[in-house]
Amino acid sequence: MMAIDDSVEAGLIERILGEYREMPGLALTMDHARRLWGCDSGTCRCVIDVLVARGMLRWSREGRLMVARSGE
User: Is 20 helix (H, G, I), strand (E, B) or coil?
Assistant: First the structure.
């Protein structure tokens, strides 16, 4: 993986993915994500970058963070 993975806590990643499992269709702006996950802007950006790079989340055309689904 990318070097950025080392700075992201595995527990936070699991919590975030759990939020998406519990709320199908969840689509968050960066600010909403930061507040929901209770982290600062830098940590939020870092974890989003990791999850997008891993293909678990994606950005919508409207600038919302969503679950990445194959074939979309």
Answer: helix
